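Note to self: user wants both folds in one dump. Writing first protein now.
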Amino acid sequence: MKHNKHLRNFLIALIAVAVLVGLFAAVMLIDGLNNRAKQEIDIAQAQEMVDATLDSLPNNVALSSKYIRSRSSITVNDIKYGTQKDIILSCTYETIDVHTTIEDNVNDVLGSISINDPKTGKPKNATKVQLEVADKVQALLETAPTLSGEMEVYIYETEDGLQLYLSDEFVNTAFGGILDAQKVVQNTTTLTVNGESVDITNRNSLRNGCVACFKLVNYDMAKPDTSSPIQRAFNEFKEEFHRNFIEENRWMYLAQGLGNTLAITALSLILGVAIGFLVAAIRCTSAKTGKLKILDGICKVYLAIMRGTPVMIQLLIIYFVILLPLNIDKFIAAVLCFGINSGAYVSEIVRGGIMSIDDGQIEAGRSLGLGYVPTMWYIVIPQAFKAILPSLANEFIALLKETSVAFYIGVADLTLGGLKIRAITYSNFMPLIAIAVIYLILVLGLSYLVSLLERRLRKSEK
């Protein structure tokens, strides 16, 4: 019967998960089917858009880029529509081989430029180098061989309208390898001048002046965002998750912090239980026998202070006022604080359990010839412990959550781990939600174990 009940619960949970996954897949499928460009254009409109975009790319003073554009053309031959709000243009292109021309002549171009200004004797800046090198590059490009071929050009429908996708591949192809030519110049570190090798590693003005001849503007290789609101939200969530946790293994801050939190909680609970049972024993002995009055008074003061002041203030006082001058580690300070604080609540739980045991149990033990201590140890405390065990487990859960203030003294707990990620990424949502979710999972898991314990105790009573 019990086995069938567990199997039924498992099947219900499995069906619920399957339904959720199916609903998510259906939403994403419907969302994808609606992700087709709604605007339609003809070949003439597409051609006009391509030409206008390419005309806007060369910088006003980059004469070489303007010349390359004048020798280049892209012809739109066909249009088809994709499933990512994209319009795919089948094109042919014709341009000049800028990359090979510059690669074969980079030494002659840069080597012919005098590094210092003859008037001032100081190194030339990039602007002067650009003016001097422009004519040489122009002459080379006039004799550059022609390139032609086929390519696909993408137009995306965004919230701001239709946008031509200026990928690196598209721009490089349309301008005859202009981006590769820029890399050739930037990566040139030595020249051969009059048969001698000259190091130009630190001659940035020389290289930058040459690159400026090929400069392009209004150029962003980022792919336009055409995702639907659902996809966009999902993509943003993935990006935020990756940036906060996956990138540079930042999840380790949470993992290490969780380990410290669990260690503080476990050690504090052990200390709290020890203190709680001791205080409860003193108070119960005083109440039942009238002895230990002075110790009972001390315990009452301890309870009043621990239960009457916030745990965070106790933590700050114990570390900064008492233990820091003694050079005690902050982790130990946290364990002592939470252990002493928890001991006050444990003592009242234990005292309540002991006092709930009928006095007839003590009298029965004494009638058997047992002393007060053996009677309490062998008869009263076992019965009381069974009654207070669920409450002690709940105190463990409360203690786990209370340790979240340990970061105030610099302990690398779970909360501080999340705050470190927040300080690095300047993101509030992900790190704080992660902290809350981890605490929630821990508390739910412990609560479930406590419920199992309570059911087991109820069965044993029957």
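First done. Writing the second protein, which came from a different request thread.
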Amino acid sequence: MKIFLDTANLDEIRKGADWGIVDGVTTNPSLIAKEGRPIEEQVARICDIVDGDVSAEVVATEAPMMITEGLKLAKIHKNIVVKLPLTRDGIKACSALSKEGIRINVTLCFQAGQALLAAKAGAYIISPFVGRIDDMGMSGIELIEQIVTIYENYDYPTQVLAASLRTVNHVIETAMIGAHIGTMPFKTLDMLFNHPLTDKGLEQFLKDHAKSLEKS
């Protein structure tokens, strides 16, 4: 499973990239707004750090303007994936832009039927939201599993990107059921390193090493 960071913060992206485990980045207008720069400038900086897919989302709500904005975003860098909402206009724009060879991430997916529409419209990526589905008392993991099964049944090339991954278990479970990509905040990525037995084991190794030096 590819690991993407769901952030527009350059320091977080640099840390993840330095570990050598970040395959791409997803952004949205809210994340961009936190950084205080225009979207074009911020995503260009992100593309200079990570050599992988970088999702940049349109803010238009009607298909003609989505298409215009999507074409503009796609010109920023070869790694840009244009992000569109899963609305009627978003799907219409996805179909049009996909036919122009522009890669589209269809976002705000909350049920498998929506994911089917995105695949038929030529989406490069579909982004179902695991954590937000859980917040509604349903299973976000089950949604990922449904979409993966549908896409495999019909050989759709659309990649399933599990979004809103808030916990280590979210990451593990989406990887186990075959999500192609998991995107997560830096905090979630950092938590994947942690286990008390790892810390305890390292501490013991270092103590044993120190003892061996004392004897020599």
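Dump finished. Worth passing along: The domain at 2-215 is CATH 3.20.20.70 (TIM Barrel).
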